[in-house]
Write a structure and sequence with these properties.
Strand 7, helix 5 and strand 8 form a beta-alpha-beta unit. The strands form two sheets. The chain has a six-stranded parallel β-sheet with strand order 5-4-1-6-7-8. Strands 2-3 form a two-stranded antiparallel sheet. The relative contact order is 0.19. It is built from six helices and eight strands; from the N terminus they run E-E-H-H-E-H-E-H-E-E-E-H-E-H. The chain is an alpha/beta fold and 185 residues long. The structure holds magnesium ion. Magnesium ion binds next to loops.
């Protein structure tokens, strides 16, 4: 079986972070309004410490949805590949509060993907050290390393990367789970 690394946020589930930022700011930003990887860059600098406190009291995964068809395709992939859900858990704005985020991620995975065992979770910051033949992530730098197939899952922050640049970096764009299904199953 080939080893398959799959990211969590903005690949198998999403929406929670933007919802919390909007709740905090009293705004109605959409994904189209975000131009960097870190959604919280929408927050003015002087509000960042209040934001960190606000975030620490919330569970982002109370507001997060599983992306369409992710459940079914993951269930099938789990039979055909040695699958690892690989996710970063450091909260950039207050690193010492990251343990709560890690717990919330763990609980969300257990609850929503009961066919994936906790032994298949990898909580890390550096995905390059994870040796898998196939990797799926929405952040291009998380696909660094020598995987044989690197699938870049389309997200707000990577949608404008031109095809030539993807090709140069050996990245194959996938826009949804139906496309992953076609390539890997
Ligand atoms: Mg991600």
């Amino acid at each position: 079986m080939k080893k398959l690394m799959i990211d969590m946020d903005d690949v198998i589930c999403g929406g929670g972070f933007l919802k919390l930022v909007n709740d905090f700011l009293g705004t109605n930003y959409k994904e189209e309004d975000i131009h960097t990887y870190y959604i919280q860059d929408l927050i003015p600098k002087e509000k960042m410490s209040d934001w960190a406190k606000f975030f620490a009291q919330k569970n982002i995964y109370d507001y997060t949805q599983v992306l369409p068809n992710a459940y079914n395709v993951l269930e099938e992939l789990n039979k055909k590949y040695e699958l690892y859900i690989t996710t970063a858990y450091i909260f950039r704005d207050d690193k010492e509060k990251s343990s709560e985020l890690l717990k919330n991620k763990f609980d969300y995975l257990i609850k929503n993907f009961p066919f994936i065992q906790p032994e298949q979770y990898i909580f890390t910051s550096n995905k390059e050290i994870v040796e898998c033949q196939i990797k799926i992530d929405d952040k291009p730098s998380n696909l660094d390393g020598d995987a044989e197939l690197k699938l870049l899952f389309t997200a707000y922050h990577n949608r404008n990367i031109p095809d030539e640049e993807l090709k140069k970096n050996n990245l194959v764009r996938v826009n949804n789970w139906n496309e992953i299904q076609k390539i890997l199953l």
